[in-house]
Amino acid sequence: MRILVTGGAGYIGGATTARLRDAGHDVVVLDDLSTGHRDAVPDGCAFVEGGIRDRAHEVLSTGVDAVLHFAAKSVVPESVAHPERYWDGNVGASLALLEAMRATGVRTLVFSSTAAVYGEPETVPITEDAPVRPGNPYGATKAAIDAALAEHARMHGLAAVSLRYFNVAGAYGPHGERHTTETHLIPIVLGVALGERPSVAVYGDDYATPDGTCVRDYIHVTDLADAHLRALEACTPGRHRVYNLGNGAGFSVRDVIGVCREVTGHPIPAVAAPRRPGDPGTLVASSERARTELGWTPQYTGLRRIVADAWSFHSGVAAAEGGRA
Ligand SMILES: NC(=O)c1ccc[n+]([C@@H]2O[C@H](COP(=O)([O-])OP(=O)(O)OC[C@H]3O[C@@H](n4cnc5c(N)ncnc54)[C@H](O)[C@@H]3O)[C@@H](O)[C@H]2O)c1
Ligand SMILES: O=c1ccn([C@@H]2O[C@H](COP(=O)(O)OP(=O)(O)O[C@H]3O[C@H](CO)[C@H](O)[C@H](O)[C@H]3O)[C@@H](O)[C@H]2O)c(=O)[nH]1
Boundaries of each NAD-dependent epimerase/dehydratase domain copy (predicted)? Predict the structure, then answer.
């Protein structure tokens, strides 16, 4: 297939593009480099620099069988402070992409949705039937796009899948997490081990969880990339299907820091800090639907493997930067 990947210069889009290339697909990446990096676009893949609004129509006109849509703004605190950027950058840009797809007759789309659409869940593990009640503008914009996809499937015959990722981590070879504004736990903790930060703040230790810190479901980016290949195959005209993607196992913030200490051999000082606004206590996925309908079985389920792969990536980047300095 010839596939357009929006956001393919970002973390998950870059890793998935490499996975698609390795599976024999022809990939063209469209990315405005607002949070991505030119050198994250995998070798052997075409790259078009630009925004969805400006250039998606042009790229789609060159002949594309399907779109994987990763491009988004995804920093939760920024979305709270500047919701308009998220409604415009996520919902506005996605509607523009859908229009360009309609105009060029491209009818297959896999979309990066998120567990953040569920907000504070009533029960865990979270199934796709759980109420959609996002607790921040980022999650609200992703829920709105999911709803738009359902309507485009119903009214315009779109073949669409929304993949609701839980906490993505790890690396696919040289494709790892490199956000300029980093809010995610594992890269922050590994940054302490690399001496880039003095300590990690633990946001809240009074949650109703076994050790009082937040529990999350960490999924390896390689498993996530594989789910996209399967989702592409499952796209059916006139149908929008939603799948939660996680391992079904929860790890606390303290668990994560402990595994990072084991993997890096660094003491990684941790400092108690107030809760981060909008953080649910526990988010753990039920991915039964993905397993049953997509035949997806995650391969790298252990937290140690996920952290070890992230560490290989981060320590390699640090060594390369040290070499350049
Ligand atoms: N990282 C996670 O744990 C996680 C969890 C759930 C969902 N997601 C979703 O997965 C997707 C990828 O996340 P990521 O962590 O790789 O983020 P990222 O910031 O690394 O990648 C996003 C990419 O999109 C590009 N981009 C943004 N707006 C654009 C536009 N209008 N036109 C063209 N390019 C644009 C950026 O430059 C960047 O390269 C996002 O949609 C995010 O909401 C991520
Ligand atoms: O320095 C830090 C950073 C994070 N945390 C804690 O670590 C946990 C994980 O936080 P992340 O920021 O790594 O991830 P989130 O669970 O907040 O959110 C991520 O996963 C969500 C789905 O679960 C959404 O998809 C969202 O886009 C994505 O950022 C949270 O309890 C957070 O409070 C800390 O204690 N200290």
Answer: 3-246
